[in-house]
Amino acid sequence: PGHDAARPLGFGALHDGHAIVALTDSLLFVDPVTGSVRPFPYPADHQLEPGRAFCVADLGPPGVLVRGADGPGRSWANLLDPITLGWSDLSRLVGLPDNGFGPASGTVVADPQGRLSWLTAKTFSQLDRAGRFTSMEVDVPGRLLGTGSTGQPVVGLASGGAAQLTTSGAVRHRTEGQVLAADHAGGLLVLDAIDARHAELGTGIVVSRTLPDGHRVGPFRLAVRTSPAADAPVAVAVTGEGTLLILAGTTSWRREPMHDWWGSVVERWDPVWVGNLLAR
């Protein structure tokens, strides 16, 4: 609870279904199954300035790579131990380039094969578990949302849409609208509407899904308990197993006279896509 939690600055998923939520002054480690919420600090001498890219890439045994930015031109990346919630530098990642264009320079993701990928301007880079580093130029700049089954990038555009690229970096498909997340098959989840009784009390969200071949299916209605407000963000993060973690904020919910509540809720969905239905 708290007004700061109604508009979090960032959101990411771990392979085991935990979520990391970025607030102005701290981070939250959230288990949406048990309801456990553990606050912990940013790395020493770092924070997350509003409007700066926040990314979470779960790399398995090395730890969780968290990337943020203190301000313009002041980005950072550190490894988080998900057990102790302690920080360390990136020295355990063998094969990182020593050219100033490492993970801290761009938006990062990880895939089920353990590859770390990041996009800096139009340079897409990958580092696999064996320490092999590759890079290539892509046709569009933006925020890296994910990678497809063969490692090809999926890029979020400044317009709010996204581009699914080929393995050579060319644009294969473009998706318009508000793209929330990419899954590990290279598909996209798009927010179509907030299903709301009025501007500050929603009953669910309506999404569609763009497949890697560009085909769009849906809409699907997710009856979330979060009561998302029309003017508060909805964020989705996808775990390595395809589970959806949905974060939505409520700016005003009157539980009883003269008592308003501000905050966000993280929900875990294990989706079964059947026609136009989504089973929790």
List keywords for this structure.
single chain, 280 residues, mainly beta, 4-stranded antiparallel sheet, 1 helix, 1% helix, globular
Number of distinct helices: 1
Secondary-structure content class = mainly beta
Rg result: 18 Å
Mean pLDDT: 85
Task: Tell me about the largest β-sheet.
Answer: 4 strands, antiparallel
What would the principal axes of the Cα set say about the shape? globular
Unreliable runs: none
Q: What share of the residues does DSSP label as strand, in percent?
A: over 45%
DSSP helix fraction: under 10%
Strand order of the largest sheet: 1-2-3-4
Can you write the helix and strand succession as a string? HEEEEEEEEEEEEEEEEEEEEEEEEE
Number of strands: 25
N→C terminal distance: 25 Å
Sum this structure up briefly.
With 280 residues, the protein is mainly beta.
Textual characterization of the structure:
- This protein has 280 residues and is mostly beta strands.
- It has one helix spanning 3-6, and strands at 10-13, 19-22, 27-31, 36-40, 55-58, 64-71, 74-80, 87-88, 107-110, 116-120, 123-127, 133-137, 143-147, 153-156, 162-165, 171-175, 178-182, 188-198, 201-210, 216-222, 234-238, 244-256, 259-269, 272-274, 277-279.
- The strands form seven sheets. Strands 1-2-3-4 form a four-stranded antiparallel β-sheet, with no helix packed on it. It has a four-stranded antiparallel β-sheet with strand order 5-6-7-8, with no helix packed on it.
- A hairpin with a 5-residue loop joins strand 14 and strand 15 (162-165).
